[in-house]
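quick one, 94 residues, struct below
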Amino acid sequence: MATYVLLSNLTDEGAKTIKSNPGRIKEVNKELAALGVKVVAQYAVMGPYDFVNIVDAPDNATMMRVSAELSSRGSVKMLTLAAMPIDDFIARLK
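---
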């Protein structure tokens, strides 16, 4: 499994949805699991993004599918970053 960082911003429609149904956030996590993606950590944040999610997925193609699926709903805009554990990064530099 590979690790990815998802930085997301709610659209106006997305903000209305979670205001009226905050549990929707956890429902999306179940939808991700059905697509083969495990949510490792999830944070609501202040600053240029509304949420930071750390997820594990089998490959880039899976994450591209997730990104397309979530973005097509019109409730969120996402930036997906592939991540590598720092020890793995250091090992590859040697």
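The chain has a mean pLDDT of 95.
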